[in-house]
């Protein structure tokens, strides 16, 4: 049984979260979700605590049962330009833009956000494991980003993004050493632990 609960400081309150912040390749992806009052789901939790199978099961349920939702990607070229924190917040803002109506209140996973219009908001550490709407946003952000990484895996299979989703695994870094970087890599990130040293 899920221990998550609604937050509901206001009616029309949405939760927002992002996925892919620590990756070496691919976008940072955010979702925003407005759930019905008294919504409950015994499986729903922070996407990081759920199996792939459960996330895939929950995605269409959240899309169908939410009152409104939005998902947005910010891609590597922009991440490199504005940095990953600003890109994560911009992705959240773009996801909120897609909602049918502006929310009355925003709850955000984590401790950093920038004002969206003049709407009140609250940052909540580990909010994705505490509140339903943030958990729902975490599931959508994760599943949409995973699907994107699986698509670009077909273009560059040597990096095995289908499995590692762009995270800095040993396999991914070894592929960067062997094949170099792609247009999907974040050039401002430390892609290899030893990339700042030169063999002279």
TrEMBL record:
Gene Ontology molecular function: manganese ion binding; RNA binding; RNA-DNA hybrid ribonuclease activity
One GO cellular component term: ribonuclease H2 complex
Top-level taxonomic group: Bacteria
Pfam family, one: RNase_HII
UniProt-annotated binding residues for a divalent metal cation: 17-18, 109
Enzyme kind, highest EC tier: hydrolase
Boundaries of every RNase H type-2 domain copy: 11-200
Cofactor binding summary note: Manganese or magnesium. Binds 1 divalent metal ion per monomer in the absence of substrate. May bind a second metal ion after substrate binding.
InterPro entries, sorted: RNase_HII, RNase_HII/HIII, RNase_HII/HIII_dom, RNaseH-like_sf, RNaseH_sf
Enzyme Commission number(s): 3.1.26.4
Catalytic activity: Endonucleolytic cleavage to 5'-phosphomonoester
Entry's Gene Ontology BP terms: DNA replication, removal of RNA primer; mismatch repair
PANTHER family (UniProt xref): RIBONUCLEASE H2 SUBUNIT A (PTHR10954), RIBONUCLEASE HII (PTHR10954:SF18)
Family annotation (HAMAP family): RNase_HII_B
Family: Belongs to the RNase HII family.
UniProt xrefs under NCBIfam families: PRK00015.1-3 (NF000595)
Name of the protein in its database record: Ribonuclease HII
Organism: Kriegella aquimaris
Gene that produces this protein: rnhB
């Amino acid at each position: 049984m899920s221990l998550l609960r609604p937050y509901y400081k206001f009616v029309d309150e949405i939760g927002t979260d992002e996925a892919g912040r620590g990756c070496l390749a691919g976008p940072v992806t955010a979702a925003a979700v407005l759930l019905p009052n008294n919504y409950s789901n015994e499986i729903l939790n922070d996407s990081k605590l759920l199996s792939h199978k459960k996330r895939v099961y929950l995605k269409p349920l959240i899309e169908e049962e939410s009152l409104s939702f939005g998902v947005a990607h910010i891609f590597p070229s922009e991440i490199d330009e504005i940095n990953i924190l600003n890109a994560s917040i911009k992705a959240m803002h773009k996801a909120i833009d897609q909602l049918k109506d502006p929310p009355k209140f925003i709850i955000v996973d984590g401790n950093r956000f920038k004002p969206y219009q003049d709407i009140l908001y609250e940052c909540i550490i580990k909010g994705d494991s505490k509140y339903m709407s943030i958990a729902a946003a975490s599931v959508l952000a994760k599943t949409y980003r995973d699907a994107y990484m699986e698509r670009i895996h077909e273009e560059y299979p040597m990096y095995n993004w289908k499995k590692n989703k762009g995270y800095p695994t040993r396999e991914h870094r070894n592929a960067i050493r062997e094949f170099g970087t792609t247009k999907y890599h974040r050039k401002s990130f430390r892609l290899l632990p030893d990339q700042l040293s030169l063999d002279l």
